[in-house]
Amino acid sequence: MTQGTTLTAQVRAVPARSRLLARPWLAGTAALGVVLGLELYVRALDASRGYSWNARTSWYWLFEQDPALGYRGRPGATAWTPDERVEHGPEGFRDRRAMGELLAQSQRRLVLCLGDANTYGLSAGSGERTYPALLERELRDLSGDQSWVVFNAGVPGYTSHEVLELLKLRLLKLQPEVVLSMSLVNDFEHVALYLDGALDYNAYALRMAPWAATPLHDLLLRSALVGRLAQRWRQRQPDDLGGRYPMTAYGETTPRGRDFYLDNVELTATLCSRSRARLMWVDQPIHYSACSYGEPKIASIEALRGELRRACTARGVPVLEAHQGFEWEGLTLSGDLLLGSNETLLGALGYERLAKRLGPQILKAVSGDR
Known about the structure:
Rossmann fold, two-stranded antiparallel ribbon
């Protein structure tokens, strides 16, 4: 066998994998092809299930970081699943009306609804089935007065702290007649059980918009494949100014957590009073079994609920009955797939029941003011 024949045999014996690695551009092209194939597969799979392109990263596309509020809704943003369609209006809320439109209505009785995911209306199906939208119809039907306007300013993850800042910075300029606040679950689960002397609340990582809106993030999170990975890692790698999670979860409300909550209640009452807005606090309905609360937790949140009542009574703030006697039968209580929320959500039927309970109480309270 000649030397040339030997070399030819050796070249033929080189595995195809080695020849591919010897040509980096071929390896890169092959890898890119695999990634593109996976991207198309994930997009096709999501589309076949009725998901919008940004459903898995809606925590990024529906919200943006805010220097004072931590985060806020992105104006005009949309995302949907087969069961839920979320559309933000021009102000970034799940209400299609602009503030200028509300200010232009001289003869209107404005109710601002502030709070967490149950005010925002996760699991409602659409903005028209949230409790603020249903409350507007309830107030008009019960009173015969079509000037009632109920604006949904709820944001998932908000606590009494963000509600206070939102009122002060953005909403009191609307000169509302009534302000409704409801956020007991978030205040209890995200603040009161953790807040101690080791870590201040402003150092907590954001639950929504944990990544800043940058051109690089915009590019990466347009990918369904990256979106699936980001959904898993967003809470581990936040880039907001806080970015640290409380290390110790206490079994009951901490003294500092209780004081922090009551301070926010007190400050909200003062702010509304100075602005001549009638503050009303909703005694948030909570299904303790659905939340997997044991007896110690139930006792602790009930104690916090009692503190809220005492603080409101001292300031002449009505507490609207919603928890006691709430009709839970027939409700499907679960978190929300769109935003990955683990909060217990009332759903469309629950929001309807809540609106019907609140409407008469609001009318009774405002009639006593006149």
